[in-house]
Amino acid sequence: MDAKIPAGPLSEKWSNYKSHARLVNPANRKKMSVIVVGTGLAGASAAASLAEQGYKIKSFCFQDAARRAHSVAAQGGVNACKNYKNDGDSIYRMFYDTIKGGDFRSREANVYRLAECSASLIDQSVAQGVPFAREYGGYLNNRSFGGVQVSRTFYARGQTGQQLLLGAYQALMRQVNTGRVSLHTRHEMLDLIVIDGKAKGILARNLETGEIERHAADAVILATGGYGKIYYLSTLAMGCNASAIWRAHKKGAYMAGVSWIQIHPTCLPQSGEHQSKLTLMSESLRNDGRIWVPLKADDNRNPNDIPENERDYYLERRYPAFGNLAPRDISSRAAKERIDTGHGVGVMKNAVCLDFSKAIKEQGEKVIEEKYGNLFSMYEKITGINAYKQPMLISPAAHFTMGGLWVDYTLMTNIPGLFALGEANFSDHGANRLGANSLLQACVDGYFIAPYTIPDYLAGELKAEKITTDHPAFDEAEKKAKQQLNNFLSVKGKLSADYFHKTLGKLLYDKCGLARNKKGLEEAIEEIRNLQQQFYRELNITGDDKVNTELEKAGRLADYLELAELMCEDALSREESCGAHFREEFQTPEGEAIRNDKDFCYVSAWEWNGADQPHILHKEPLLFESVELTVRSYK
Amino acid sequence: MKIFLKIWRQETREAKGEMKNYVLDDVTEDMSFLSMLDLLNEKLIAAGERVVEFDHDCREGICGQCGVMINGQAHGPLPHVTTCQLHMRSFNNGDTIYVEPFRAKSFPVIRDLKIDRSSFDRMIQAGGYISASTGQAPEANSIPISHKTAEAAFDSAACIGCGACVATCKNSSAALFVSAKITHLVLLPQGKIEADERVRKMIAQMNEEGFGHCSNTEACEVECPQQISVLNIARMNWEFNKGGFL
Ligand SMILES: Cc1cc2nc3c(=O)[nH]c(=O)nc-3n(C[C@H](O)[C@H](O)[C@H](O)COP(=O)(O)OP(=O)(O)OC[C@H]3O[C@@H](n4cnc5c(N)ncnc54)[C@H](O)[C@@H]3O)c2cc1C
Ligand code: FES
To answer: Which pTM value belongs to this model?
Structure first.
């Protein structure tokens, strides 16, 4: 496995790459076409930037408009080491925070590049009209986010993702207007077309007419986001899926870091059986909110009635240096530990308190309102509770997938011509992502990396024979896709797609969630296999093959069921605790993770080997030249 | 609680639709409105019937994909709340609820409650952007922007593009949507340069899409989930007229 990391010192690798990347002559660019699946920050920015260079782009998303990609939901902010606060920030420090935050399970070169490109992203977004928060003097403001000690998070109230995405969406629409981008909304990718070992197109289903369309191109980019929705209850949108990357996986692309899922500590707790999603409350709230549970287990008093000395501020107690800003995996696990030992609060006893009373006393209600007003009102809309008067109740929920398609330094998968950008790839976050780093990663991938690495690939394809959609590879893929859809419609069992999704989600959350162990994972694999068999026997999809949400769900679920098994295999094979991956067998007596650098300092990249065959594990060793591997302590 | 539903069902763009009756016995107050529709769909599936198609994605009020008329009101009875953020505690046991798609000539129905809002995209495409290609941006702090201006630009930029403004307007005007984008961009120094062209092109596209004229009833502002102000429309008109005179 060659990660194709450029030579030279860490800080010069990306410049070296850029100076030597191959170029395509402007006259030739309009002859080269690229498919971009996904219109989130990664997809929209890549499509727009490549179109600006003159390439012919086809862009796809399953929503009714490009602007609705789930990047839109990010609240908290985006990191960039501008050092505007003069608080000692630098590219190296951001690189180090990210590597450490990822528990030393990511590539040095990738992470360094992420930090290196971060400042330009802020410039780019401001030029597009993103209304970031400003200080009274007119300069950009920022704040600090979990897991770091400097202030490098830029934000646009609680809607940073929306504002960044609108910037990228508008850049994309500008290119649609020039005719260089053709946009296909309400389309779902069904398969990747690989011809002579290279990615040459996709099969997509028009979600209105049901038509299966063939699209050929010289390269394919998947920027299809994360698959955290596999847990059903999550902070993701209802349509988020793994299907695009999973189908590419079944065509030969490796999946890496598959079981590394970030469970976010500050979400609204589940309140009943019919709930379909868990809403995130931005982590920025932890800057001023203090997290606690009743000292006494099974305390049924209203949080406001519990006196100060009967509260356990467990994060401040266990991690004095970082306190309430301890990284996400640590905060989530600490919450789970308190909840599991009977200290949880709320109707289902599944939450902890996030308390603003001290901040309000110190800073005044007005300041708190200016910082978090929309979050407080969102909280009230959903729960009916006024958080200026009472602590918020929060609990952990599945949120971000560090894993995804394995990519090399150029963001190309092991299938030549197939690239993966944004949350869909495994690259910069290692075993745990730091808050506000993933908007950044999605943008950096699309605005600053793909525009160099994709032309470099295309330069080698200029003379290649153009593939047309009557190639037999399309016939075969279409036949298979149709068969699968007909299959779903003809099972006519008794159970809905949601039933399977909820069952799978619960099973995964319990056995391959915040904490894992060998026994649980082995049981989970067994149960997933049974569920899969039941799915093909008892699924009930009503309606036709045109507009049919249930049919869409079935396809996504078929992929989730296969992916779930690989997640458990991946977690089982990694006999250490690192980042979000906490194996109960590998912890200190105080409950802290034990990482095993001797045996597991590698990326697990899995190869599909057929439906009835086990996956094949490939190991990409991680070499650390610039940092020393330390215990990731936040005490 | 028990809820009586009257829901618009329509097979295709061309087909004639009709209201159909459904009854749910086991709705709870903490359910969101869309979870209630999920529950209905579960029952339809169990009965072997086609589900009620409706648009939604994030279910947290930000993507703008959800949106139906509930008892004749865009996004339902609460002000400034998307359909996905509405909860059943806003209704009473025994209520009859009418659920229909957003209606406007420029928003054709695709199936049941799903509509085609691509006209919104085409208006943005016509000029709703700042032409700053990747790589052209200067250092972000080189152009200071006052706190007040940034906040005002944000207020307009917050639009989620759901279309409730159009659905609620008796003229099916898209003035609030278009003016929000125009105002967002014109307030910022970066967006001023293309202001005249932008306002002309976006308004031309708006007319071409068949949206009605704004007659200042201000119903749109009342329904807007992001509380986009009708002052944006005044700003748009001013920008448009200024472009014509200067
Ligand atoms: C609630 C929430 C809050 C967050 N807050 C922050 C934050 O404050 N800071 C931060 O840095 N990160 C945050 N994140 C993470 C960050 O938002 C995401 O990692 C990032 O936006 C992902 O961008 P993307 O472009 O990779 O994917 P997305 O924005 O999810 O886009 C995926 C695109 O792919 C398309 N697609 C998917 N599957 C298919 C298919 N099969 N066929 C066709 N099209 C398909 C979709 O239509 C969509 O256009 C948050 C995430 C969530 C869920
Ligand atoms: S589903 Fe996204 S705004 Fe309602």
So the answer is: 0.97
Chain B residues close to A348, C-beta within 8 Å: none
Identify the residue whose tokens are 């390439």.
A55
Please tell me the predicted confidence (pLDDT) of residue A364: 95
Q: Please count the helices (runs of H) and the strands (runs of E) in chain A.
A: 18, 20
Find which of B33, B42, B44, B60 to mutate to test the A interface (most A CBs within 10 Å of its CB). B60
Q: In the β-sheet with B73-74, what is the strand arrangement from edge to edge?
A: B18-24, B3-9, B96-101, B68-70, B73-74
Active site annotation includes A537: no
pLDDT band, very low/low/confident/very high, at A567 (cuts 50, 70, 90): very high
Closest-approach residue (CA) in chain B for A62: B57
User: Tens digit of pLDDT per residue, chain B (246 long)?
Assistant: 999 999 999 999 999 999 999 999 999 998 999 999 999 999 999 999 999 999 999 999 999 999 999 999 999 999 999 999 999 999 999 999 999 999 999 999 999 999 999 999 999 999 999 999 999 999 999 999 999 999 999 999 999 999 999 999 999 999 999 999 999 999 999 999 999 999 999 999 999 999 999 999 999 999 999 999 999 999 999 999 986 665
Q: Cβ distance B70 to A167 under 8 Å?
A: no
**Summary mean pLDDT of chain A:** 95
Cβ proximity of A394 and A244 under 8 Å: no
CA distance A58 to A235: 29
Distance CA A618, CA A602 (A): 9
Domain A265-398, CATH number (from 1.20.1050.90, 3.40.630.30, 3.90.226.10, 3.90.700.10):
3.90.700.10
**CATH code for B117-133+144-243?**
1.10.1060.10
What's domain B3-111's architecture? Roll (3.10)
Listed in order, strand segments (DSSP E) in A129-211 are 153-154, 181-184, 187-195, 198-206
* Centre of ligand 2 from the C-alpha of residue A271, in Å: 19
Establish how many alpha carbons lie within 13 A of residue B94's alpha carbon, considering only the half-sphere containing its beta carbon. Answer: 0
**B241 vs B199: CA distance, rounded Å:** 10
- Contact call for B124 and A170, based on CB within 8 A: yes
pLDDT at B244: 67
Taking the C-alpha atoms of A57, B139, B129 and A142 in order, what is their torsion angle to the nearest 10 degrees?
A: 110
The helix/strand/coil state of B148 is: helix
Residues A353-394: tens digit of each pLDDT: 999 999 999 999 999 998 888 889 889 888 888 999 999 999
Q: Is the pLDDT of residue A513 over 70?
A: yes
- The candidate with the shortest Cα–Cα distance to A521, out of A470, A565, A489, is A565
Cα–Cα distance between A428 and B221 in angstroms, integer? 43
Domain boundaries, chain B: 3-111, 117-133+144-243
Say how many Å lie between the CA of residue A71 and the centre of ligand 1.
4
- Where does chain A hold its CATH 1.20.58.100 domain(s)? 472-621
Answer whether B111 touches A (CB < 8 Å).
Answer: yes
Q: Which residues line ligand 1 (CB under 6 A)?
A: A 37-43, 60-63, 69-71, 73-78, 160-161, 187-189, 223-226, 235-236, 241, 243-244, 280, 399-400, 422-424, 436-440, 442
Residues of chain A with CATH 3.90.700.10: 265-398
Do the chains contact at A549 and B51, CB–CB below 8 Å? yes
Q: Is the ipTM of this complex over 0.85?
A: yes
CATH number of A472-621: 1.20.58.100
Ligand 2 atom with the shortest distance to the CA of B160:
3
- Kindly list the strands in the beta sheet with A198-206, ordered across the sheet, starting from the edge strand earlier in the chain: A187-195, A198-206, A212-216
Whether B61 and B82 have beta carbons less than 8 Å apart is answered as: yes
